[in-house]
Structure formats: C-alpha cells, structure tokens
Amino acid sequence: MEAMASVDFGNFFISTLLCLLSTLFLFLFFSKKPKKNGVNLPPSPPSLPIIGHVHHLFSGSVHKSFQKISSKYGPFLHLRIFNVPIVLVSSASVAYEIFKDHDMSVSSHDAIGMEECLVFGSFGFTNAPYGDYWKSSSLTNMLGPQALERSRGVRAAEMERFYRDLLDKAMKKQSVEIGEEAMRLVNSIFGKMSMGSSFSEDNNEEKVSEFSVKFAALTQKIFLAQILRKPLEKFGISPFKKEVMDVSYEFEEMLERIIVKYEEKVNEHHRSEIMDTLLAAYRDQNAECKITRKHIKAIIAELLFGAGDTSSKSTQWAMAEIINNPKILERLREEIDSVVGRTRLVQETDLPKLPYLQAVIKESLRLHPPGALLPREFDQGCKIGGFYIPKGTSLVINAYAVMRDADSWTDPDEFKPERFLMQEEERREKVLNFLPFGAGRRGCPGSNLGYILIGTAIGVMVQCFDWEIEGDYVNMEEASGRPFLAMAHPLNCVPLPRILNPLPSSL
Ligand code: HEM
Pairing mode, if any, of strands 84-89 and 76-81? Predict the structure, then answer.
C-alpha cells in the first residue's frame, strides 16, 4: 500500500509539475502583449489568464454575449482572445464616429485562414483588400440600379412562380416554412440572374439551397476560426478547416458544371449579364486585373450566399413580426390594396409607392439583422473616443446592440415601423445608426436588391394570403450559437387565399 501511495504521489507530483510548466509556457507564449506605442486602449472587462475573454464567445449567441458584456462594462471595450486584441463597439455614437471619420482605416476584413474556401476565402469579394479596383467596380456594375433594372423580368417571373407555389399549397391546406420558401425564391432569382437558364437544370436550385443551409450552419465555426486563427496558426492549427473545405469543394464542383454548360450553350439559352462579365474578364489575356476560373466561382458563391441566407432570414423575421401584429398587417393591406389593387400581383416597381411596407421591413431588419456582428480590422492606428487603437487590432461592431441602443432609439426593443416614416433630415442623422447592411466602403453592395427581394416577397404574401399559425403568437426566440441571426423555431404557417382570382403581374 505504502509503495503504491508513494508511486501515486510521485505520478501526481510529476503530472502537476508538467501541468504547471506547460501552463507557464503557454502563458508566456500567449501573453505577448501588443506593442504599446502610446497605446491607450478602451477599458477591458476582467479576463481569465491565458484565454482572456474567449469564454464569452461560447455562452449562447455571440452578439447577445457581447451585448451583455457591453451593458455591464461600457459600449467601447478592449477584449483579448488569447493574446489577440479586439475592440468591441456596441453604441450608436461610437459606430457613427468610426464610419464617419475612420471608415478607410477599417475597410478590410480579417482572413479566416482558409484561402481556398469559396466563401470568405481569398478569391471572392469579402476578403479582397479595399481598393481592389476590378472587384469593387464589377460589384457596383453587377448590382447597381441599371443592372437591376435590366434583370427585373427574371425577378418578376420568379415572384409569380413563388405566388403560384404558395397558392397551390394553400389549396391543399399545406403548412409552409416561410424561411425555406424564401430561400428557394431568392436562390432561383439570384441563380438565374448570375448563371442564366443553365441554373434551372439538374435540380441546381435545391442544391444551392442545401449549400446555403450547410454553409450557414458552419458560420459560427468560421467566425471562431477567424478569431482563433492568429493565436493558433503558430502551432500550424487551422480550426474546422476540413469541415468547411469539404462543403466548399462540393459546391465548387457544382458551380464548375454549371459554368461549363453555360459556355457550351452560348447561343441557346437565356444569358446572364453577370456571368458574361465574369467570363469576359477571365478570357481577356490583356486585362489589367486577370481573374481565374476560381475567382468566378468564388464571386458567384459569395453572392449566392450573401443574397440567399440573409434575404430569406430577413423575410422570415419580417413575416413573423407582421403575423404577431394584426394592426400592422391591416395597415399594410390597406396600403397595398389602395396602391396596387386586387387584380394584379404587387411588383417591385410598386415599392417606392409603398412607404409603410418599406418601414415594416426596415424595422424588422433593425431588430433582427441577419449580420448581427460586423468584423473588420484596423489597417492604421486610429484615435477614437479619446482612445488610441493600434494598427492590426481586430474590430467587431455589434450591429445588433447598436440598433437596440436606447440612447439612439426610442423604445428600442419594440416593433414600431412608424419610426421609419420620419422626415428626411431626421432620417439622414439616423442613417449611421441603422446598420443591417453594415456601412461605409465595405457596406453590403446588395442592399438595393435585398430590399427588392424582401419587399416583393412580403408584399405578395400580405396581399394574397391570410396566415394561420399554431397558437396565438409566433415564438420570436433567437437560435443560439450562430453569428447570422436565425429564428430558434422556424416560422411554419398555413396560407389561406385572400384574393380569389388574382391576375399575374404584367411584366
Ligand atoms: C436582407 C438582405 C441582406 C442583408 C441583411 C445583408 C447584410 C450584409 C452585411 C451586414 C454585410 C457586411 C457589411 C459590413 O461589413 O459593413 C454584407 C456584405 C456583403 N453582402 Fe449583403 N446583405 C443582404 C443582401 C445581399 C445581397 C442580395 C447580395 C448580393 C447579391 C449581397 C452581397 C454582399 C457582399 C458581396 C458583401 C461583401 C462586401 C464587401 O466585403 O465588400 N448581400 N451584407
């Protein structure tokens, strides 16, 4: 017994010593502080040794955990993820100062450490350095007002199909999941806008929706990979890389097949201005900025993901708010009936004449922004709010918290669309506090298209159907553990035809 006890004690001692030494090693390794060249960082909440504030990232939704830390310790904080400094902004006034005075310094994104990944890798838009002329100018051309005007027919035809699918389900008294229907709609619209009629073959619409769902489920891990990349890359560790890359390769193969078909049937099918622009740039041997086939696929993948997941989630949240607020539903219907009538389907050219519908959508985006967190990086040192933030510091703007900041919004947690019917000057002042599409140079280039997609989808659902839900209210709980804000209980409801014989929209 005695011998055993001494052996156990010896083992215990050695293990403890090893533990202490490795902890000390890790501590010394990770606790290398950022250089302090006149650095005066914002306040920092209490942190744990070695890991800093990492534990906050694992307790439920990251945006809500950050909002909680900020309401306790202040709206402008300095956090530490191991030895990597992050500045967290949760107030409208600091966000305003950053976008107004320092936008150029925060116009890049931190890499996720998976260069080859189609979405958020180094071939698409999101991680291209600001100033990459070709990418930014082609984005503006592809999603600008004139290009959108030229592709209006594609959207009108898909919107009519959306209405007919819902009507079919209504006749069968079938329940629909609004998020799924909206995802199918947006994917087929953007798929056709970007890949022409080749997109409609081989069940590609379903496949893209599957990809979007798989990729959306991985975004929490991608977000963590981005944050943990700097401390872990010293050990050659790239967290979650295999899982993310498997989905990316699968999607890349599918896009390659579609592009090959597109090229084969040059004269036979409905063309896409976006694909033609990309292929022309790829084939141009003398182009100033040469792009590869991988660039084309990454750009399409990012646009599909950027459009599909965000717009479908936003449509679902907006519809849930409308169903929970019968008076708002009534007012929306009055507006649509008086502007559009009941003999044709609402269409995107009606939207400017439907201010209340627009206000409802904005208010829903304010409370439920799919991109709740806006991650950026300081390219240069900046003085903000009396503090000095050094170059290379990561920045996270909590758009969710900014848009619920009580100093900037009256009754910030309540759904009040009327607030967006205010006068022009007031609206201009508020614009930098309203961040569902981010802001500044790296703000969302698809915001116009996003408003069109959500506006027409909600318009059709409100104009043509009543909606029956189980119980009295839609449960508005947020899903935890995702950087893209999603409903914990997806919205299921049964459409009941409201207009008995609506005529199709005139294209
Ligand atoms: C409701 C719909 C949408 C929402 C809420 C949304 C939201 C966002 C947000 C928050 C960002 C980051 C902005 C920042 O860092 O300041 C972003 C970026 C982006 N979005 Fe959207 N988006 C939507 C629709 C779209 C659509 C329809 C497209 C294109 C078809 C699109 C393409 C992009 C792209 C390419 C970026 C990256 C831009 C860059 O890094 O320069 N988005 N979006």
Answer: antiparallel
